[in-house]
Design brief:
Blueprint (H helix, E strand, L loop, with lengths): L1 E5 L4 H14 L2 E5 L8 H7 L4 E4 L13 H13 L4 E5 L4 H5 L6 E7 L8 H9 L5 E7 L4 H12 L4 E6 L6 H7 L5 E4 L11 E2 H6 L11 E7 L7 H11 L4 E7 L3 H8 L3 E6 L13 E2 L1 H6 L4 E5 L2 E5 L2 H10 L8 E5 L3 H12 L3 E5 L3 H11 L2 E3 L11 E4 L23 E4 L8 H8 L3 E3 L1 H17 L5 H8 L1
Parallel strand pairs: 1-2, 1-8, 2-3, 3-4, 4-5, 5-6, 6-7, 8-9, 10-11, 10-12, 13-15, 16-17, 16-19, 17-18, 19-20, 20-21
Antiparallel strand pairs: 12-14, 14-15
Bound molecules: 2'-monophosphoadenosine-5'-diphosphate (ATR).
Length: 475
């Protein structure tokens, strides 16, 4: 169930949001501490879904600053008006509310805006020993493993429980908690309307993360990297899982400490994508490495087969398939700009397809080092105008934010050839726009991205991904 909190400061705005929430929430929390000129009756009447009435103290990140007696009397009034649920904190006189609960159900809650404390089990036991109808335990995740502590409580609770972690590192708990049986998960009405840090918009929870369908037994996938907040793979993979009616779900894991992540989470995941900065370091945690990934020295896809982890690299198929839609690579003069991880993966693919490779880089020594390994030509970016190129591939970060108006080479020399830009944050980088004007055949990095994601989907599910469907999702 999705709960949306109404946090507006005046009645008109609160009612306006309440009307929107009626359409997307399963349950609505009225944060009456926020609302100036409060008319609880009017709010309860305007709600078409069950309501939770909450009157949070300032000390608990709420807005209520009056006397405790007054605060509780507002909750009692909500009970008299027929509120479906009333939330009261574990460290307040909750018995006063429970003894007077009439037809309302009482949620006894614990919140911690700083951490997931060491004594979380004691706090849980205390909540559990009350006469609450539902218990609620919401902490802040300072590390990914904090989410697991909350999940353990959800799993062991005999009472209905709401368990979540707040903050960016707790974002995964907003989906995971539902898989493990949390009574509800909180969502924001829209981006920017979060009532707690880390909340995900309700629309995303319902349509991308399939919150109404997920349940124990769903296979967990995800992406690990840092930073990860802008990663869009969760949209593509979850949409594919949904389309193919697979009981799989894909989450974003912001991973700082790879070793800890592998220890705590890898057994929970059926597979995962690996992105920067972990593509190389992940190799030492994986039992079996596919020969292509070994050659590149980087893994972007991991499968967990009953505890046995295997690493693959689909970046390479992504690039090669995107080019092969337009042209054969064999015997073509292929110039790669850049000498980092992406250049290395694409170089392996180009050589496998028997292209004639040159690597050009701002730091010529790095191009030289790579060229020795691959036995190919090298040079500086300025050398582009001196060499013959049939297929040009940009793997430098020029064209990406903040250099979205830059090009890695002078585009007046980029004429009548095929150009692929590995950047996929926009459909047409400046390089591609200029190349198109100069009569080149251009290939967006998005095509490369889609093909590598399709490769991951095939490895995890054994099924071919629908490329057109993926293209539409991305657009
Ligand atoms: P990736 O894994 O995406 O390839 P990387 O390993 O950090 O990322 O490589 C980034 C590439 O972009 C490098 O080739 C880098 O050139 P240097 O080796 O000289 O650093 C290139 N690059 C980054 N910023 C650049 C810039 N402003 N001008 C030219 N090349 C740039």
């Amino acid at each position: 169930m999705i709960c949306i909190s109404i946090i507006f400061s005046n009645m008109d705005a609160a009612i306006a949001d309440l009307k929107k929430a009626n359409n997307i929430a399963d349950i609505i929390e009225l944060r009456v501490d926020y609302i100036f000129g409060l008319d609880i009756k009017k709010l309860i009447e305007a709600a078409e879904k069950p309501v939770i009435v909450t009157n949070r103290r300032k000390a608990d990140n709420g807005k209520f600053e009056g006397a405790e007696e007054e605060r509780l009397s507002i909750l009692k009034k909500a009970i008299d008006l027929g509120a479906d649920y009333v939330d009261i904190e574990i460290d307040s006189n909750y018995n006063e509310i429970i003894n007077d609960k009439k037809n309302s159900k009482i949620i006894i809650s614990y919140h911690n805006f700083d951490e997931t404390p060491e004594n979380i089990n004691e706090i849980f036991d205390k909540l559990n020993s009350t006469n609450a109808d539902i218990i609620k335990i919401v902490t802040t995740a300072n590390k990914l493993a904090d989410n697991l502590k909350i999940i353990e409580l959800i799993k062991k609770s005999e009472k209905p429980i709401i368990g979540l972690c707040m903050g960016p590192l707790g974002e995964i708990s907003r989906i995971l908690s539902t898989i493990y049986g949390s009574f509800l998960t909180f969502a924001s009405l829209d981006k920017g309307k979060e009532s707690a840090p880390g909340q995900i918009p309700a629309e995303t929870l319902r349509n991308i993360y399939r919150i109404d369908e997920i349940k124990p037994g769903f296979k967990l996938y995800g992406v690990i990297g840092k930073p990860i907040s802008k990663s869009k793979g969760y949209i593509v993979h979850n949409s594919l899982f949904k389309k193919e009616k697979l009981n799989n779900i894909y989450l974003k894991f912001e991973v700082n400490d790879l070793e800890k992540f592998m220890k705590n989470f890898s057994s929970l995941l059926a597979g995962f994508s690996v992105t920067m900065p972990h593509k190389e370091n992940i190799l030492k945690f994986i039992g079996v490495i596919d020969p292509v990934a070994k050659k590149i020295g980087a893994v972007n896809t991991v499968v967990n087969n009953n505890g046995k982890l295997t690493g693959y690299n689909t970046d390479i198929i992504g690039a090669i398939k995107a080019i092969e839609v337009k042209t054969e690579i064999k015997d073509k003069n292929v110039t790669i700009l850049g000498a980092g991880g992406a250049a290395r993966a694409i170089a392996v693919g180009v050589l496998e397809k028997q292209g004639k490779l040159t690597i050009l880089n701002r730091t010529v020594e790095k191009a030289e080092k790579l060229s020795k390994e691959f036995n190919c030509n090298f040079g500086s970016l300025q050398d582009f105008e001196k060499i013959k190129t049939d297929i040009l591939i940009n793997t430098t970060s020029i064209g990406m934010h903040p250099e979205i108006n830059g090009t890695p080479i002078n585009t007046k020399f980029v004429k009548n050839i095929i150009v692929l830009d590995a950047i996929y944050s926009q459909e047409k980088t400046k390089l591609l726009q200029e190349a198109e004007k100069n009569n080149c055949t251009i290939i967006s990095g998005i095509e490369m991205y889609i093909n590598q994601a399709a490769g991951q989907f095939k490895i995890w599910t054994g099924k071919e991904a629908d490329i057109n469907f993926m293209r539409n999702i991305i657009k």
